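User: Could you go from structure to sequence for me? I need the amino acid at each position, not a summary. Structure tokens:
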């Protein structure tokens, strides 16, 4: 049965909420991508909104890019940790697809690896554009189809269940850029590869990030030791020293709101 938008949002919020305490230790990919995204975002003397802020581990860096920082996340648990760090001017629990912010009040919007969890990413982009002041800029990163391809290929040799989210292809965003020219979208892709001792270490990191949520075709069957051993044997890409690597296809979207004539 398909999940409605509210149920899906609540489910993802719970997953990330449970990952709150382990998130910072596990977030290798998040660190790499957030630093790259920040390099694409000019600093401002005004307000910056962080969409999908998580526990706020990146906020000391964001604070250097703005005067005021607002954190927005679906998860109350994540925002609780963010508030405790005292880096933000305001922490707001909300859905990035429907921002509780007035139009043209924000100088910059930043969002790193949140968009892939949204049912309608085009709404997030349109909302970011709406709240930006003329001349404002947003940088939003997400994951594309092809992410964790090795992991998927290995599981496909063990069973036919879906063990990780399906990510949208690049052409979805290319089409959005054509269909919504007012957003001023520019797209940049990057392949990030991370090494892991084995598939269990990879699976643990995904779980610690709350990223093991599957939004369609959920498999609730238990996966035992023998099944994981089969996945390890089937894993297609081996690094030196017996390690494996996982590939992440990353997209950086730069959105510019034009100045009025």
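Assistant: Here is the amino acid at each position, in order:
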């Amino acid at each position: 049965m398909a999940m409605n938008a509210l149920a899906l949002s609540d489910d993802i919020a719970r997953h990330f909420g449970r990952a709150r305490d382990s998130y910072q230790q596990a977030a290798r990919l998040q660190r790499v991508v957030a630093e790259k995204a920040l390099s694409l975002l000019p600093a401002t003397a005004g307000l910056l909104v962080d969409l999908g802020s998580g526990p706020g581990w990146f906020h000391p860096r964001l604070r250097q890019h703005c005067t005021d920082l607002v954190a927005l996340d679906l998860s109350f648990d994540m925002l609780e940790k963010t508030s405790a760090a005292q880096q933000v001017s305001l922490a707001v629990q909300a859905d990035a697809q429907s921002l509780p912010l007035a139009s043209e009040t924000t100088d910059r919007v930043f969002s790193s690896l949140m968009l892939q969890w949204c049912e309608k990413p085009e709404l997030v982009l349109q909302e970011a554009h709406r709240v930006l002041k003329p001349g404002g800029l947003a940088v939003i990163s997400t994951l594309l189809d092809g992410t964790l391809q090795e992991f998927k290929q290995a599981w496909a040799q063990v069973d036919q269940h879906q063990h990780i989210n399906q990510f949208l292809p690049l052409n979805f965003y290319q089409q959005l850029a054509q269909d919504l020219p007012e957003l001023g979208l520019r797209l940049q892709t990057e392949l990030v590869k991370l090494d892991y001792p084995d598939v269990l270490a990879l699976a643990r990191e995904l779980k610690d990030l709350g990223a093991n949520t599957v939004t369609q075709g959920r498999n609730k069957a238990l996966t035992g030791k023998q099944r994981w051993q089969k996945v390890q044997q089937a894993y297609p890409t081996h690094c030196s020293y017996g390690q494996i690597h996982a590939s992440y296809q990353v997209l950086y979207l730069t959105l510019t709101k034009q100045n009025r004539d």
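One structural detail worth keeping in mind: Confidence is low (pLDDT under 50) at residues 1-9, 15-26, 212-222.
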